[in-house]
Specification:
By secondary structure, the chain is an all-alpha fold. It contains 15 helices and no strands.
């Protein structure tokens, strides 16, 4: 496969997955802000959303305060933010169009229809009171694309590059969503274990569609270390870090066998995958959840760069 074609597929999947992940991150922000009982007390929740999204510099350039509407605008439709939902859908369609013959008809229709519908959105769709419907629409369109890829693609290198893009972006998102809780909770540690703390952790689970999964796996009341365990170390949970790295290891190994070469990305995936597979949640909290997630996000980014360097350049 031409590296240009592989690059288009890899980034097509990443942009679609990123649009869903930004929607889920905003959902966390909305849920946590709604728990604040103080007048204007949701500023911290929205500041944490920007920080977790990695968009603090682009948001700072807008000169706006981190209010609900300002953050929603920046993460959904600001043309100066390349990670905004609308920018991701635009770039996904551009990549799909560049490699139209390399994807299936169902995949193209999923991407193209999402882009066409996005162009019809109005200002009121982005208002604080209405944006939940938009976020649900984004998640549905991403799931439609993922289902089309899973159900219609041949299991060859095109599929493997698509799955690599989805997995590496999803791992980044799960780590960032978990990290939102750190930013929200840090200034008010006295709230740990209280009612507000409980509902914040519940918001994390709901944002990744894992509330029912949590009770199925643990059959216990909500405990922060078990939430972290589910989203980091449990392979049954499809959005967990270890589940994403199961996929990354599988498809990088398939590419190594097909192309007969290995690079730094294969060494990194082996190292990171082993750490997740054999890790313990006690060790994560001993290091510090925020520190662990920050390190993971950085290493995950390096892995993405090494995949691009080895296969997509």
């Amino acid at each position: 496969m031409l590296s240009r074609t592989a690059d288009n597929l890899f980034w097509l999947a990443r942009y679609i997955e990123r649009s869903e992940n930004v929607a889920r991150l905003l959902d966390v922000g909305l849920r946590m802000a709604s728990l604040s009982q103080e007048a204007g007390g949701d500023a911290m929740e929205w500041r944490s959303t920007i920080l977790a999204a990695g968009c603090e510099q682009s948001f700072a350039a807008t000169g706006r305060e981190p209010t609900a509407q300002a953050v929603i605008d920046h993460l959904t439709r600001d043309p100066a933010n390349p990670s905004s939902i609308l920018a991701c859908l635009e770039m996904a369609r551009r990549n799909a169009r560049a490699d139209r013959t390399g994807i299936t008809t169902d995949m193209w229709e999923a991407v193209n229809s999402a882009w066409l519908e996005a162009r019809q959105l109005r200002d009121e769709d982005f208002a604080v009171g209405n944006v939940r419907r938009l976020l649900e629409w984004v998640k549905e369109r991403s799931l439609r694309f993922g289902g089309a890829a899973m159900g219609t693609m041949l299991r060859n290198d095109a599929y493997w590059f698509t799955r690599l893009g989805m997995a590496i972006e999803r791992a980044d998102s799960t780590a960032r969503i978990l990290d939102v809780k750190y930013h929200v909770l840090l200034p008010r540690e006295s709230g740990v274990g209280g009612t507000r703390d409980y509902y914040q952790w519940t918001s994390i689970l709901r944002s990744v569609s894992a509330q029912r999964a949590y009770h199925w796996v643990y059959r216990d009341r909500l405990k922060p270390w078990l939430v972290a365990d589910l989203l980091i170390l449990r392979p049954e949970m499809p959005r967990s870090l270890v589940a994403c790295y199961d996929d990354l290891a599988r498809y990088l190994e398939a590419l190594a066998g097909a192309y007969g070469t290995r690079g730094e990305c294969h060494r990194l995936i082996g190292q990171m995958h082993a750490r997740l597979r054999y890790g313990r949640i006690e060790d994560v909290f001993r290091q510090g959840l925020h520190e662990y997630l920050t390190e993971f996000i950085e290493q995950n980014s390096v892995l993405g760069s090494e995949i691009s360097r080895h296969y997509l350049s």
